[in-house]
Amino acid sequence: MVTVLPSLGVPKRSLERVWTIVVAAGSGQRFGGPKQFEGLGDRRVVDWAVDVARLASNDGVVTVLPAGSAEPVVGLAVAGGPTRSASVRAGLEAVPSSASIICVHDAARPFATVALFEAVIAAVNAGAAGAVPGIEVADTIKVIDDLGTIVATPAREKLRAVQTPQAFRADLFRLAYASDAEGTDDAALVEAIGGRVVVVAGEAANRKITTPEDLEWARAKVVAS
Ligand code: CTP
Ligand code: MG
Question: Where would I find the H helices in 30-113?
């Protein structure tokens, strides 16, 4: 009998075959350049993301790089597309059909932990179509129209700011990406085909590097640790 303990990710004897797509093909418009190749401690930002993905994925990792990039990465790499969804789609083509759970992780998030991967993988292993890390929002969030007029104020306790890694049952994930749908995260595409995606506790340190200030914060954190 296999004993499945909660929050331990893939049980040791599970048959799940986990692949992770690390998306690193963005141009970093808000940062002012491809931030994923900036140095952070002894490695580049992308290396932090790939390293944790490799520790957490029992089958493999594919990294999606800008088309024509000469940046080296450990393991399998493919060229991305003009949008994040196009880059995920390119990465998915390199994931073997034997994968049973597919995770997607932003190269721009250097501080996600193996435990966070394990938490989203465990939720899919337990039956969800997908699982994403989310944290409570501190600010009140407004929905506005094109003119900037507020049209709704969702109850703050029902809102979560979501992160990567996001994990999905592989067949549903492939179905979600079979069209040319676009989204700012992967869960949105799985939600759109009716998949049940759950939120697990995210990590405050799992901040996405978006601006130069975010990289300064990350470098200070590495120096301090
Ligand atoms: N990404 C990608 N391919 C794209 C766009 C984004 O692989 N065409 C990746 C980025 O490299 C990043 C992650 O998706 O690791 C999250 O995207 P984001 O933080 O928006 O990065 P950029 O798109 O590069 O930044 P910006 O939106 O400021 O241009
Ligand atoms: Mg972007």
Answer: 45-56, 84-93
3 has pLDDT over 70:
no
Where does the pLDDT of residue 11 fall: very low under 50, low under 70, confident under 90, or very high at 90 and above? low
Distance in Å, CA 26 to ligand 2 centroid:
6
Name which of 26, 16, 5 is nearest 82 in CA terms. 26
Query: Which candidate, 186, 185, 192, 190, places its Cα nearest to that of 171?
Result: 190
CB of residue 27 inside a 6 A radius of ligand 1: yes
169 SS3 class: strand
What pTM did the predictor assign?
A: 0.94
d(CA 192, CA 34): 30
CA–CA dist 44, 37 (Å, integer):
5
- What pLDDT is stored for residue 4 in this prediction? 47
Pick the residue whose CA is nearest to atom 23 on ligand 1.
26
